[in-house]
Amino acid sequence: MRYILSCPRIKSLDISKEEILEAIQDSSLVQVKEEDGATYLYRSSPLPELRERSQNNPSSYNRRPGGRDGDKGGHFKNSHQGGGLGKNPHAAGCFLKIFDIPESITQWQAVKDSLKDALPKEALVRYVSRIDTVTEAEGKKTRRCWVYLGSFEKDREVLEGMQPIKVPIGGDDGQEHAAQAAVLTDQEIRLCVQDMPPRVRTNREKDLQTLRRQLCALPLTIGGVNFTSVDHLRSCINEFLQKTPVNQTLKPGSAAERAVKGLLEYHPKAFVKKGGRDKEVSGIKVGLHEKTNSQTGERMKCFFVVRKKKNATEESEEQDEE
Fold first, then answer.
1. What digits encode the pLDDT tens for the residues 36-63?
2. pTM of full prediction above 0.85
3. Is the domain of 267 the same as that of 201?
4. What is the domain count for the chain?
5. DSSP state of 138
6. Per-residue pLDDT tens over the stretch 67-118
7. Residue span of the structural domain in which 122 resides
8. What does the alpha-carbon distance between residue 105 and residue 110 come to, in Å, rounded to a whole number?
9. I want to staple 305 with a disulfide (CB 3.0 to 4.6 A). Which of 28, 141, 297, 320 is the partner?
């Protein structure tokens, strides 16, 4: 029980052990046991059976050794869908899984040539892994590989709309066979990137860096305040911090307060910083951080979140690291 009580979300709710036990006393999923003065929670039923996902599910791709690479070409026009770069592995180009490859296909070049007719003309193949035979659910074997494409406008949206993608492949036997392609999940892509040849992986990282620079140069709005770029936002926030005296609260409704509150929404612990369910943000104050400047030895300024209980006037302070 002590691990549950130490959870940040539970702390933000400010509830006790007794309240938790009362809430789950009628649950059929959890059992409560007292042993040696400690309280333990157990599952009432065993964990579900672990099963391998079906081959028709794009998320069933496993990590495989790298293969040969295709063309380096491609246009850097990704639409940056699905959130920030760290949350979108498709940002510098989409990854596809090709499965049900016939036995007569042994070289990656045949897969690359077949994709030219199956994919939009804007999609250029930048890398094709080697073809491997894997065992799917129910003991069925299939041959598959994965492909890295150059980015193009709305690439992920277009490719997901085409699923399931039929890939006609001509084998060495002179007959045409039909393989299938699907967009890989984020977790599968992270495994594939590890298997990329160094040259291809380096080129992808350069594309990601270029995209980051382009995004940082775009205008943005935080808390209803317009900024010309990320650098402009950074300099303004630093100016707000340095020009505001210690222990002074930012003027309510000012551009400075709205901008800092807007940034707070992107904090990884925003829910806790804002006070959880029973508190709300009433203001932003400038204070001194416990850490000191490594050069001067002086305590550094930072923003503090001033909170109060909902429907109350009592306030409490908590540091917010911007």
1. 878 888 888 887 777 765 444 433 334 3
2. no
3. no
4. 3
5. G
6. 444 443 334 344 444 444 556 788 888 999 888 888 878 788 888 888 888 8
7. 87-206
8. 7
9. 320
